[in-house]
Amino acid sequence: MEAVEQRLSGRDRCQRAADTVKDIDLAGSPSRGPSESKLVIVEWADFECPACKATAALIDVVLQQNPDVRFVFKNFPLEMHPNAEQAARAAMAADLFG
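User: That's the sequence. What structure does it adopt?
Assistant: Structure tokens below.
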């Protein structure tokens, strides 16, 4: 597979990637930015994950510099983090209250 990928032109690689794009149900997910945005960043994250935490500042910068971008958050609690599911449930409840 790797050898095949190396032989593909940039255009072919882009087409192959486009063929694997999936629709994501964003209804009810916390978000910020214009709902009609042409560019949407979707983050799946775990509230106890150090790597997820590290990306928060970068996402804030991207959104500040690009106010036309919509950001959507999806919970992805990992089993290895004992409080992740409870934190995700608490965050969703808080979002319902605004």
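The chain has a mean pLDDT of 88.
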